[in-house]
Design goal:
Oligomer: single chain
Largest sheet: 6 strands, mixed
Structural class: alpha+beta
Distance between the termini: 44 Å
Order of helices and strands: EEEEHEHHEEHEEHEEEEEHEEEEE
Strand content: 35-45%
Number of strands: 19
Number of helices: 6
Radius of gyration: 20 Å
């Protein structure tokens, strides 16, 4: 099986840079699925953050090849789906993720159209440009004119991070990413050259168990038991019992029985009732929450969706980093 052409560079959770913000570009953080696109006139291949090929899941992006006739480009970006208000919505995108049946893909492509937000250029016509500064890569990307129904090159702002943060809040977006103008593209690395500044608390968690529902949720999942890794140990972080759609519940009813464990995968005691079932820590959930308690438990958590191809062992508790720029 062919391997992915590269591993995406990742952003570190942080705050707006304290000094010398003119050294950063600020752009919206898109709530979707990370995608590396290998674009050629003969066809387009798509790869997820975990290097899983997903070419056949998003057939509308095959048009990128005709958009760059006679050229080859390696692009980085985020696939998003829009809600009824025209805003990127990860819950809506769940209807497109992981489909394998061509008929299902074609039907969902009509029901839930996607847009590829292209924000970086890694190779062009056989030349590796990852080593070039971010601002230079962006100029090269913009020169390609990638603007159409299913792909878009978003704008960015240099220096005025507060303006972009305020705009993201008014549009009810997930947040902002700050990228150092002189930074190269470092495949697979998460560091302070790219900072994600979130408008709300949200991150990925590993599902280590579930409890049975009551009342209207009787006979299905009531809540998921969540955790994150410290080294090779899964720490308990609480549960999430809201945000479940009927489709999500049906998927969980199919997936969870095959992951059943006889004992808890968490290193900590889990204070749940007798209806708790433990599972192999293989499923990754995207969860929004109000805050962490002093005991390290989530408060008022809501399920946003699942990262079906994310490596569970890479899920850690995200701690914001404040960056001071000295030059």
């Amino acid at each position: 099986m062919p391997s992915a052409p590269t591993v995406p560079m990742l952003a570190q959770l942080g705050e707006l840079p304290v000094t010398q913000r003119e050294l950063y570009a600020f752009e919206f953080k898109w709530e979707g699925v990370r995608c590396i696109a290998d674009v050629r006139t003969s066809g387009v291949r798509l790869w997820s953050r975990s290097q899983r090929e997903m070419t056949h899941e998003y057939p509308e992006l095959q048009g990128l090849g005709k958009a760059l006739p006679g050229r080859r480009a390696l692009l980085d970006g985020e696939i998003v789906a829009l809600d009824a208000q025209g805003r990127p919505d990860f819950g809506t995108l769940q209807n497109r993720i992981g489909l394998t049946n061509p008929r299902d893909v074609a039907r969902r492509a009509q029901e839930v159209p996607i847009i590829y937000m292209v924000f970086d250029l890694l190779e062009l016509d056989g030349t590796d440009v990852k080593w070039r500064p971010y601002v230079e890569r962006r100029r090269m990307l913009e020169s390609l004119g990638l603007e159409a129904e299913h792909w878009h090159t978003p704008k960015y702002v240099v220096g005025d991070g507060e303006l972009v943060v305020e705009a993201s809040r008014s549009l009810h977006l997930e947040g902002v990413v700050a990228k150092r103008l002189n930074s190269p593209y470092q495949s697979g690395r998460r560091g302070p050259d790219w900072l994600k500044i979130k408008n709300k608390n949200a991150q990925e968690f590993v599902v280590g168990g579930w409890t049975e529902g009551e009342g209207g949720r009787s006979g299905t999942v009531g809540s998921l038991l969540l955790g994150y890794y410290e080294g090779d140990r899964l720490r308990y972080a609480g549960g999430v019992g809201s945000g479940f759609s009927l489709r999500t519940l049906a998927e969980l009813n199919d997936v969870l029985p095959g992951l059943e464990l006889g004992t808890s995968p968490f290193r900590d005691p889990v204070p749940v009732r007798k209806s708790a079932h433990f599972v192999k820590p293989e499923l990754v959930a995207e969860v929004e929450f109000q805050e962490w308690t002093k005991d390290g438990i989530l408060r008022h958590a809501t399920l946003k969706g699942f990262r079906w191809d994310k490596d569970p062992t890479s899920v850690v508790r995200e701690v914001p980093t404040e960056v001071n720029v000295d030059g």
